[in-house]
């Protein structure tokens, strides 16, 4: 799910931003140093927007067993600073109020002339920032404490130390994965189910799995979720309503590109069948297959759509445009479509960048998991995991994500910080 952002120095081993907008041969390309400059600017802006709570951040946590315990088990020293569950809403409210107060003050500081700085405003901004850092630390500690509450509420009485002692790094399909032993047992069933099948040319998985995350980040925080090939199986979520994981405008732009592709390539309008609806099939295993087929078809359509601007596909484009003319509410010409494809390619390419959706090669579509792997992961008679490409918490698809929500033991996650904003439990994806 998410954006698959890893911790560590911001610029270390970060892939280059995705550039989908092709340049004609011989034209000037952006130099690598321009790319780096762009990343540095983004990184600086991000530090600010994270502090101001600008957008959700999904962080990975990788670590040895002592690191895992330190991240998830409230120590006796931390116990004294741990805010009570009942205090979380007041902290969230205070944080919101300080952020509201900060905005005009920061603007005043910025607007003041160099020789006449607004000292009062600057001092207050500094005070606010210090308090925001404190609140952030307290809420982070509360989230950590909530993991013990979650385990208890789901009937696990062993405590966090025992739970996280059962989180280990195993090898799954040739790659390391840090998961709870309950998930490890199910992943072993997947390997068994695949063992006699021919391996796809690039292997069953080609990227490193996501690993355990910090508290407050869905079943990933408990070692009960795994993302497979996260860079090439992005989450495509929630284009309307309350944003989850990313601004709705991002999800909306991706949805629009997929719908344009479905219209032109498959002659299917959103009101024939919207991409963001789940196949209406009762049996879970059959529905997983139907979801897979639907996503695969849309992914292939997007891939094909992005190359319809190529000169050698012009005849094909003309045929498709002619075929959908009556279905297309805008009755677009081939030239109109070329403009739209280029615009979609640019929009999707910029949203796919590592500091945004972290989706590699959108020009190859959004699904590269083998269908047999997805079936083995979800098989009711086998591993029985839930795939968020199929079973979704909202109108969206987190294609990389598999978890144990359907089989337990954790079916609800306690989150007193989110509770302060009006909801106390959620499972999430990401
Ligand atoms: Zn996930």
- Percentage of residues in strands: 5-15%
Helical residue percent?
Answer: 40-55%
Poorly predicted regions: 1-59, 420-424
How can the largest sheet be summarized?
Answer: 3 strands, antiparallel
Structural class: mainly alpha
Helix-strand layout with pairing:
Elements: H1 32-51, H2 65-72, H3 76-79, H4 88-111, H5 119-153, H6 159-165, E1 167-172, E2 175-180, H7 181-194, E3 225-227, E4 235-237, H8 248-266, H9 284-306, H10 314-324, H11 334-351, H12 371-378, E5 386-387, E6 396-398, E7 401-403, H13 416-419
Antiparallel strand pairs: 1-2, 3-7, 4-6, 5-7
Bound molecules: zinc ion.
What does this 3D model show about the protein?
- This protein is mainly α and 430 residues long.
- The protein has 2 domains: 44-159, no CATH class; 161-419, no CATH class.
- It starts with 31 loop residues before the first helix and ends in an 11-residue tail after the last helix.
- It is built from 13 helices and 7 strands.
- Helix 4 (88-111) packs antiparallel against helix 5 (119-153), helix 8 packs across helix 9 (284-306) and helix 8 packs antiparallel against helix 11.
- The radius of gyration is 24 Å and the shape is flat.
- It has helices at 32-51, 65-72, 76-79, 88-111, 119-153, 159-165, 181-194, 248-266, 284-306, 314-324, 334-351, 371-378, 416-419; strands spanning 167-172, 175-180, 225-227, 235-237, 386-387, 396-398, 401-403.
- The structure holds zinc ion.
- The site of zinc ion (ZN) has 11 residues, from strand 3.
């Amino acid at each position: 799910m998410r954006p698959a952002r890893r911790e560590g120095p911001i610029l270390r081993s970060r892939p280059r931003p995705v550039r989908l907008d092709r340049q004609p041969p011989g034209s000037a390309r952006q130099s690598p140093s321009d790319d780096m400059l762009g990343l540095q600017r983004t990184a600086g802006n991000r530090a600010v927007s994270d502090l101001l709570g600008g957008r959700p951040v999904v962080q990975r946590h990788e670590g040895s067993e002592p690191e895992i315990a330190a991240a998830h088990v409230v120590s006796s020293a931390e116990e004294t600073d741990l805010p009570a569950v009942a205090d979380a809403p007041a902290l969230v409210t205070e944080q919101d109020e300080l952020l509201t107060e900060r905005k005009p003050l920061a603007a005043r500081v910025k607007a003041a002339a160099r020789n006449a700085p607004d000292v009062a405003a600057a001092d207050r901004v500094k005070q606010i920032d210090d308090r925001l850092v404190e609140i952030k630390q307290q809420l982070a500690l509360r989230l950590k404490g909530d993991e013990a509450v979650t385990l208890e509420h789901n009937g696990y009485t062993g405590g966090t130390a025992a739970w996280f002692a059962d989180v280990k790094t195993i090898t799954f399909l040739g790659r390391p994965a840090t998961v709870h032993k309950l998930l490890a047992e199910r992943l072993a069933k997947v390997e068994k189910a695949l063992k006699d099948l021919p391996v796809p040319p690039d292997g069953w998985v080609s990227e490193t799995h996501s690993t355990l995350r910090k508290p407050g980040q869905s079943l990933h925080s408990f070692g009960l979720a795994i993302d497979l090939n996260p860079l090439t199986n992005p989450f495509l979520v929630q284009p309307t309503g309350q944003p989850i994981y990313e601004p709705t405008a991002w999800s909306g732009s991706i949805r629009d590109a997929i719908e344009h592709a479905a219209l032109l390539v498959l002659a299917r309008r959103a009101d024939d069948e919207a991409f963001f609806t789940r196949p209406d099939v009762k049996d879970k295993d059959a529905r997983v297959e139907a979801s897979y087929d639907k996503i695969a078809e849309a992914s292939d359509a997007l891939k094909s759509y992005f190359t319809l601007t190529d000169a050698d596909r012009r005849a094909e484009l003309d045929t498709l445009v002619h075929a959908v003319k009556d279905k297309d509410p805008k009755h677009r010409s081939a030239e109109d479509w070329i403009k739209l494809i280029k615009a979609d390619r640019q929009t999707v390419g910029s949203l796919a960048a590592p500091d945004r959706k972290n989706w590699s090669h959108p020009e190859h579509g959004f699904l590269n998991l083998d269908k047999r792997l997805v079936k083995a992961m979800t098989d009711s008679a086998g591993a029985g995991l839930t795939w968020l490409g199929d079973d979704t918490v909202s109108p969206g698809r987190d294609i990389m994500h598999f978890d144990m929500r359907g089989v337990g033991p954790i079916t609800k996650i306690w989150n007193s910080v989110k509770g302060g904003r009006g909801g106390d439990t959620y499972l999430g994806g990401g």
